[in-house]
Amino acid sequence: MQPVNVGLLGMGTVGGGTVSVLTGNAREIARRAGRGIRIAHAAARAYDPQSISGLDRIGRITDDAFAVVENPEIDIVIELIGGYSPAKELVLEAIGHGKHVVTANKALIALHGNEIFAAARERGVMVAFEAAVAGGIPIIKALREGLAANHIEWIAGIINGTGNYILTEMRDKGRDFADALAEAQSFGYAEADPTFDVDGIDAAHKLTILGSLAFGIPLQFDKTYTEGISKIEAQDVVHAEKFGYYIKHLGVTRRSDAGIEMRVHPTLIPRRRLIANVDGVMNAVLVKGDAVGPTLYYGAGAGAMPTASAVVADVVDVTRALTTDPNNRVPHLAFQPDELSDIPVLSMEEVETAYYLRVTALDQPGVMANIAGILGSEGISIEAIQQKEPEEGDTHVPLIMLTHLVREGHMNQAISRIEALESVKGEVVRIRVEHLAG
Asked: How many helices (H) and strands (E) does the chain have?
């Protein structure tokens, strides 16, 4: 049988890893796919030939990406350029030419996936995107296939390695955020501009995809609540641990009677939970299904070879299904296109969760009573409270509280009232709490 011809767009970190995996494991991949897979045409404006093995086995290398997608000999296009443009134009052009697409581009899928999948259905081709979420962890396949018998109840994921590394350093070594970020940048874990990672945008792209796969709703990145970790202080990490929690930058999507929660934010997790002990740059996704119960997926969320592993797995899947009737393939978003639901995505104010609060208040009688009175009047009950002794000369002390479940809108009102008190200094620090009970 003739080999499948692949066109590769981009030979950076992941693209170079994909070349190495496809060429280095060619025999094993052919055994699994049922036929050979070769890179017939690749496009890259710049690449390091010394760091990529197997370059000599690529049919042709050019700097013109559109020449690859227009090449009539190409069966599958692998898009590893990243970003929104020209990635979107190239993917749609490839689909228009009747080519299947494999991509690791979470931003592209999260923002433009609905349009791309519609175009693919019209042309009868596949778009595979396993590498777009959690690198080498096969979480897309798990949701689309392995857990297809379940009503998914919720997903909670550590899906950005940079943020996880920073929080791990803050906890284990007592560093502040800026120092931990600087080290992450020196090791290459964080970009010179770390905004996408530390502000939660990268994780929100991934959570948008997971939420659609879990609940059969269209991709809706604009409705995903996003909060970063730059305001987390070393003292919050210490206080959380004293209460029995670790702080993680978590993506959470949950089905409720009112709608679907989609949120990324710093979160206190009981330290006895397995996912709370996922450290460094590693990723983990915890999925709760009604039949299977909780299942945990752990591994490298980034890097050349782990991500290339997911890219090549998608190429193998597409190769296996090349002759399959398009109507009988695994749907892009796990549910048949005409079965996607219009269940609303909840605003953050409608979400219920517990909270960690840190209030800097005057060290004098009656202050705690005033704060507790405000919380009580908003229907917020306190689970635990801790007050630190003041340092010599300090007039204000931190009050640390854990609350029971409350709607975010009520908490917002309470925080506004607390911050308005003359006895309270600065802003109230608020971190959400998730117990993730199976």
From this structure: 14, 17
pLDDT number for residue 394: 77
Same fold, 139-300 and 350-433: no
Asked whether the beta carbons of 438 and 294 are under 8 A apart, the reply is yes
Distance CA(7)–CA(119), nearest Å, equals 19
Q: How far apart are CA 337 and CA 191, in angstroms?
A: 37
CATH code that applies to domain 4-136+304-339? 3.40.50.720
Name the DSSP class of 81: S
Q: Could you say which of 106, 206, 223, 288 is catalytic? A: 206
Which CATH fold would you assign to the domain 139-300?
Answer: Dihydrodipicolinate Reductase; domain 2 (3.30.360)
Burial (CB count within 10 angstroms: exposed 0-12, middle 13-18, buried 19+), residue 150: middle
CATH topology of domain 350-433: Alpha-Beta Plaits (3.30.70)
What are 138-151's pLDDT values in tens digits?
999 999 999 999 99
Tens digits of residue pLDDT in 405-417: 999 999 999 999 9
- 398 CB-side CA count, 13 A: 16
Mean pLDDT of the residues in the chain? 95
Q: Which token pair is 384?
A: 């635990």
pTM strictly above 0.70: yes
Rounded mean pLDDT of 167-173? 97
Active site residue 206: yes
Dist. CA 184–CA 106, nearest whole Å: 22
Any idea where the domains of the chain sit in the sequence?
A: 4-136+304-339, 139-300, 350-433
What integer pLDDT is reported at residue 393 of this predicted model? 66
- 432 HSE (CA, 13 A, CB side): 27
